Amino acid sequence: xxxxxxxxxxxxxxxxxGELYIYMHAKSETPQAPRIIYDGKDHAVFIRNPDQKIILxxxxxxxxxxxxxxxxxxxxxxxxxxxxxxxxxxxxMVDNIPVDxxxxxxxxxxxxxxx
Length: 115
Prior knowledge:
Elements: E1 4-7, E2 11-14, E3 20-25, E4 35-38, E5 44-49, E6 52-56, H1 64-69, E7 72-79, E8 82-93, H2 109-113
Parallel strand pairs: 1-6, 3-7, 4-8
Antiparallel strand pairs: 2-3, 4-5, 5-6, 7-8
C-alpha cells in the first residue's frame, strides 16, 4: 500500500494559451498514468504512479478556479534549474477528497499563511 508524501515546494503557472504547468522537484520513478485528484480546496493529490501519492500542499487561492476547470495539466520535473521530465497529468475533479488533512499535519491556506 502506498503512503502519501507531501510536495511542499511546487509552483503552478499559466502558459500563454491558458494551459497550466506544475513545476516540482524531479522524482526517481517513472510516472505511470499520472493524474491529479482535486476538489477545488487547499490540497490536491497527485497520483504519479500506483505506489506514489503526492500531496500538493496549499494550492494558492488565486489558481484554484483555473485548476478546477482544467482537464489536464503539464507536470514539469526539475533538477535545480534543468528540466528532467515533462508529461501530462489528467485532472479528476471530485466533490471532496476523502483525506483528513489534519491527521497528516496539514492546515488550510489561511492557517499556513499566518506562520
